[in-house]
Automatic annotation (TrEMBL), chains A, B:
Domain Nicotinate phosphoribosyltransferase N-terminal: from-to ranges: 8-128
Membrane-spanning ranges: none
Function description: Catalyzes the first step in the biosynthesis of NAD from nicotinic acid, the ATP-dependent synthesis of beta-nicotinate D-ribonucleotide from nicotinate and 5-phospho-D-ribose 1-phosphate.
One Pfam family this sequence matches: NAPRTase_C
Domain of life of the native organism: Bacteria
Listed name of the protein: Nicotinate phosphoribosyltransferase
Keyword tags: Glycosyltransferase, Ligase, Phosphoprotein, Pyridine nucleotide biosynthesis, Transferase
Cited CDD domains: NAPRTase_A
Species name: Olleya namhaensis
Maturation and modification: Transiently phosphorylated on a His residue during the reaction cycle. Phosphorylation strongly increases the affinity for substrates and increases the rate of nicotinate D-ribonucleotide production. Dephosphorylation regenerates the low-affinity form of the enzyme, leading to product release.
């Protein structure tokens, strides 16, 4: 399946036709943001921007899309418009890899309303998923400390979504992936070990290990739990490690994929060390997540490499980020969506977001949202609580939304996954630990400028009356 | 991203190279099966087969894949092999859309071990995900009874996995999708309504409704909760419905996307009926799943159409099916994978699975697994409990695994999603209700032939000694 402009919800095209007939030149500003941090985490890692920009630059309806829409009853004049469709708008965005928070714009699209509407689904589809997985990966990295992290989830991923999961995992802090296609296209490190089937295809395990070590001696990892981990697999691995030493080679590691990983890794470490194989690493896998890894670390399990699959690439248990795309301006006028739930009321206007840094270079713990035309602000107010406000005049303020696409062309240079991952780590290093803990992380504040708050409240009152 | 043979785990290629050097002509049989029904459901709906067959028929490594693997250090002779790689094996499978159960083969691959290994990841990736989503859709269909079900999850799906989610949802019982691309390629019905942004782009809601109804009068659904559902949205929708009547048109429906859907749908139904608009349907959405729909039905909420998004396309809360691919024969010899957990011991041999039907044409509640060469069997034994066996001699037995691909070519005609969905419904109609309930569904039995059980136990004992 190629991503074309038909990679969208039908209602986008239906609404587009109405706009085409009734107000073809409407100019819209849409905000992308989410409402709740995934996994009850203290932050999210914004990911997917480069893919969105790449796709948008060449987005078209294919001939087959046009035939399909004709068959759906769309009219010829509108179909002619769609044949020539391209996205010609502007995008202002947070940097990919930055830490982001709920209820503040992460990205703003400014475009003809037809174009802005048609790209909505694609944009949400790519950004919601990659942000979810990069955030999960970031939590796993936090647990695993300096251990090596390997993504091996493709077989349990949501079909071709697994391709994007491997990219997002790298941004969130994984060292490598088993996913060849993603590694090839995104220039991510790729690694792999061996499967049980490899060993089963031999009459005995030792022969399997020997063949593997002979043909693939470099980074060789032997899977030792097919029949009996400590009584059979480990002794066979030690035999092969010694045979490799005789040839001047070194066994990279052994892998445990079942049983109690804390117990087995300690036993295996002791046996390997007693055999003078302290350089042989211990690789583990089997339904790992950030909590299992945290527990293994707390038990001082001597594990060098964690292979994480299902829980990483599916973003369990949340499995989705609740990102939305809301109209905030139309033809220069501010727009708002009301809700019974005050948290769900959207923020009107084209906006800028400022992040404050303290004297030590750490994030102050607050992003302030202002109307774009206001420029820098001195005071930040709580979005609803009228008793809460903070003087931010003395703090260093960084504007977070930068122009990344103009007239449908990207205007920032392409960044590699490695560059994005490094930027993400540098930003996380500025975030105090209290926002990173898993249990009730400290709440990073999102405030509004006084002007934005007043104008929003005026709009609410106007609609309520 | 195009799916090529590099859409796999690196270890498959590493193992392939070892096989290529040491035993290039090994012949393997692999079983695809899963271990636990998703969502604690009583069954799963098998989906994804047609996609797998289509992809396998033309699977190749691209030039860029070969360059990448060269750069990864794979040797020239093996790279030459990969350049000419195609899948030339056979596949025997359950029919797509059938109801399936844990711990029995759903599909068997018989091929050169290199080919069988390289396709493992792709096969698991497509089948695990689509089976998960078709099963979720089936549960939602069970709750919703005869109501119309609309998939609208693309924006929260796992990137391009959403394309396959829409296909699987249709197989599991959904009537239509918002996903234009999937509808176009898989010939699924597509539908859509309107977004809040459409209404927000107008100075008032009534103008928005009027423009929409004028341009798109067919299947017109008005979203009534942007500002105030009962005080503003519904009265405006009624004005437009009456204006449409004057032109000989009929408003299809109104949509509720927030608030208490039971309360609001009853109020809206009464108000519409009082305005002589009993034909106007009520469409609802907002974080629906099988449990919310069941509750709405129990409250007699007069809802005609349920739009389901996130919980459907992400397969929440499970988010993954634990499907595996295990070697069961190598060069004609049975193979087994042991485990500390007896449930995880694999079944050796090339096999056939039989489903028993009772005199009323209902499924008897048991599938029996036998060695392929045994032919039909008279007795089925519990896999582990030596006290349990069933005489099945008098029951009608249907062999479930049919040859679908031979020498790398599909030998069954392509089936449309609609045909597969209809087949699935016909199979579900044969399954007694006690296997369909959500709370502790009755356990559908999986038994072994006496010969398979004895041979498996002999293999376990051989490896243990």
């Amino acid at each position: 399946m190629d991503i074309t402009a038909a990679y969208t919800d039908l209602y986008q095209i239906t609404m587009a036709q109405v706009y085409f007939v009734t107000k073809p030149n409407g100019k819209a500003v849409f905000d992308y943001y989410y409402r709740r941090n995934p996994f009850d985490n203290g932050y999210a890692i914004f990911a997917g921007l480069e893919d969105v920009l790449d796709i948008l630059e060449s987005l078209k309806f294919s001939e087959s899309d046009i035939s399909y829409l004709k068959q759906k009853g769309f009219e010829n004049e509108f179909l002619e418009y769609l044949k020539n469709f391209s996205f010609k708008g502007s995008i202002r965005s947070s940097k990919e890899g930055d830490i982001v928070f709920p209820n503040r714009p992460i990205l703003q699209v400014e475009a003809n309303i037809i174009e802005a509407q048609i790209i909505e689904t694609l944009l949400l589809n790519i950004l919601n998923f990659q942000t979810l997985i990069a955030t999960k990966a970031s939590r796993i990295r936090y647990s695993a400390k300096d251990a090596i992290l390997l993504d091996m989830g493709l077989r349990r991923a949501h079909a071709t979504g697994g391709y994007y999961a491997s990219r997002a995992a790298a941004i969130g802090g994984f060292d490598s992936t088993s996913n060849v296609k993603a590694a090839e296209d995104y220039n991510i490190a790729s690694t792999g070990t061996m499967a049980h089937s490899f060993i089963q295809s031999y009459d005995n395990e030792l022969d399997a290990f020997r063949d593997f070590a002979q043909v693939r001696p470099k980074n060789c990892v032997l899977l030792i739990d097919t029949y009996n981990t400590l009584k059979l697999g480990l002794p066979n691995a030690i035999i092969v490690a010694k045979e490799m030493e005789d040839k001047g080679e070194k066994l990279f590691g052994i892998r445990l994929d079942s049983g109690d990983l804390a117990y087995l890794s300690k036993k295996a470490r002791a046996i390997l060390d007693a055999a003078d194989l302290s350089y042989v690493k211990i690789v583990v896998s089997n339904q790992l997540d950030e909590f299992v890894i945290k527990s293994l670390k707390e038990q001082h399990a001597p594990i060098d490499v964690f292979g994480v699959g299902t829980n990483l690439v599916t973003g369990r248990p949340d499995a989705a980020l609740d990102g939305v795309y809301k109209l905030s301006e139309y033809n220069g006028d501010p727009r708002i969506k009301l809700s019974e739930n005050i948290i769900k009321v959207s923020l009107p206007f084209k906006k800028q977001v400022y992040r404050m840094t303290d004297a030590d270079g750490l994030f102050y713990g607050a992003d302030a949202v202002a109307i774009y035309t206001e420029g820098e602000i001195d005071k930040m107010e709580h979005p609803f609580d009228i008793t809460k406000q903070i003087d931010i005049s003395a703090l260093k303020k960084e504007p977070l939304l930068e122009l990344v696409m103009e007239d449908g062309k990207r205007i920032i240079p392409a960044r590699t996954v490695t560059e994005i991952a490094e930027y993400s780590q540098s930003r996380l290093a500025q975030l105090p630990d209290e926002y990173k803990r898993f249990q009730n992380p400290h709440t990073y504040k999102i405030g509004l400028s006084s002007q934005l708050k007043k104008e929003r409240n005026d709009l609410i009152n106007k609609h309520k009356s």
